[in-house]
TrEMBL record:
Keywords: Membrane, Transmembrane, Transmembrane helix. This is Uncharacterized protein. It is a multi-pass membrane protein. InterPro entries: RTA1 (IPR007568). It is found in: Membrane. Coiled coil: none annotated. It comes from Orbilia oligospora. Transmembrane segments: none annotated. GO terms for cellular component: fungal-type vacuole; plasma membrane. Pfam families: RTA1. It comes from the Eukaryota.
């Protein structure tokens, strides 16, 4: 059997080249990609509706943009089923699927501020707005790093060259994202330990009913699942891009399906099913108003919460509890 002549990837087609020499290294599965396109379309519709219903503008915008990018990414993969050497399909896929998790991460980051307020802002080491500003800034930095990676990959691919430099630039952005997510998890765990240390009697009494509701507990569990899924996906992408777009892992569709598509699908669906607007309920508006009352963290003496001893925190919040109970009875 005669070997096929070497042809520039830009001129490849089914007659001239093997599919293993395509941008993907395989022919993308049509049923799989249609399935995930449908899932992210459902998730997009749900997040837009829930954002309007519960007025969760920041969270809703982040999640909706992320789902839209996922839709575009899987549309690109569907186009690649017909022609896996298609440059437009490759560009759409790497930018859509590659950048969407950055916006998912931003939505997840925004939840921590409200969780801190729900349990008691005074218990936190830093004031609630610090979490929002710091992690949104981290996400912007990650996006600024990853976006040029996609552009460089596109330029290299348009010249018929393996997009190695773009892959490594994108890799650095994802590494930064994993670092930020790890810090977010660490601060969340640190706040949980502080809550446990001061005891339930020190938690903000205004939100006691909400905290005890199964809806809020389900939201916290869903947020944990979503964060774990995002973390698994990010670690997978680090391993994938370490070998570049032509590496073994980048050309393994089964790994992509399980560690990329399934993980992000889980994230998008659980955050819609157990939406923060549903989890916080009527207190979402009250918590948002309380958040707005805090000064911007870069102002003088506005970064750290007052460093009270545990006993002082308990005494102060117990007084607030008594006042709240008296008002509630009236």
């Amino acid at each position: 059997m005669s070997e096929r002549p070497r042809v520039s990837i830009l001129k490849c087609n089914w007659d001239l080249c093997s599919v293993s020499a395509s941008w993907f290294g395989y022919r993308p599965s049509l049923p799989m990609n249609i399935t995930f396109l449908a899932i992210f379309t459902i998730a997009f519709t749900a997040h837009v509706y829930l954002a309007v219903r519960y007025k969760t503008h920041g969270f809703g915008i982040c999640m909706s943009i992320a789902c839209f990018l996922e839709i575009s990414g899987y549309a690109g993969r569907i186009l690649a089923y017909t022609n896996p050497w298609s440059l437009p399909a490759f560009f759409i896929q790497i930018n859509g699927v590659g950048l969407a998790p950055t916006f998912f991460a931003a939505g997840i980051y925004l939840c921590l501020t409200r969780i801190v307020i729900a349990y008691g802002a005074r218990i936190s080491r830093v004031q609630p707005k610090v979490y929002t500003y710091f992690f949104v800034l981290c996400d912007i930095i990650s996006l600024v790093i990853q976006a040029p990676g996609g552009a460089l990959s596109s330029i290299s691919a348009s010249q018929g060259k393996p997009p190695k430099l773009g892959a490594y630039v994108g890799l650095s952005g994802i590494c930064f994202q994993v670092l930020a997510l790890s810090i977010w998890l660490g601060l969340g765990a640190e706040f949980a330990l502080r809550c446990r240390r001061v005891g339930m009697e020190a938690w903000d009494p205004k939100y006691e009913k909400m905290r005890n509701s199964w809806r809020f507990k389900a939201f916290l569990a869903a947020l944990g699942v979503a964060t774990a899924a995002l973390y698994v996906r990010s670690v997978y992408r680090i391993a994938e891009l370490s070998g570049g777009y032509t590496g073994h892992l980048a050309k393994d569709e089964l790994a992509f399906c399980i560690l990329e598509a399934v993980m992000i699908a889980i994230l998008s669906l659980v955050t819609a099913a157990f939406h923060p607007g549903y989890g916080f309920g009527e207190d979402y508006v009250l918590i948002t108003e309380q958040k707005a009352s805090y000064p911007r963290p870069w102002k003088k003496n506005a970064f750290f919460m007052k460093d009270l001893k545990t006993e002082e925190v308990i005494i102060e919040l117990n007084e607030a509890r008594k006042s709240f109970v008296r008002t509630d009875r009236v």
